[in-house]
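Reading a protein record of the kind used here takes little practice once its layout is understood. The fold follows as a row of integers, each naming the local backbone shape at the matching residue. With these conventions in mind, the following record can be read line by line:

_____
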Amino acid sequence: MATADSVGEHIQEERDILRSGTRQIKEKLEQKSEEAWDDLVESIRTHPARALGITLATGVVVGLSAAALTRRRHTGLQDAIETLKYAIDKAITKFK
């Protein structure tokens, strides 16, 4: 029959194993996220036009989604197009 002390020791050993595994997973995730961030920064530096295009496309999708959710009608596309035109005009004036 197991005593309370041996059960407590077994539980403590299991906790230590879980903590060690969790720590290792955390370190791996931190390392991979840092590598991914560095890759993203390098990609933006080498291909700024592609990064701008992806950002613009993402903005259009988010704008369309937001317009569709707020109005619940099919006019969201027209609003997104007008917003996109305004943003492009404003960006062009900044770069002149």
User: Anything to note?
Assistant: The radius of gyration is 26 Å.
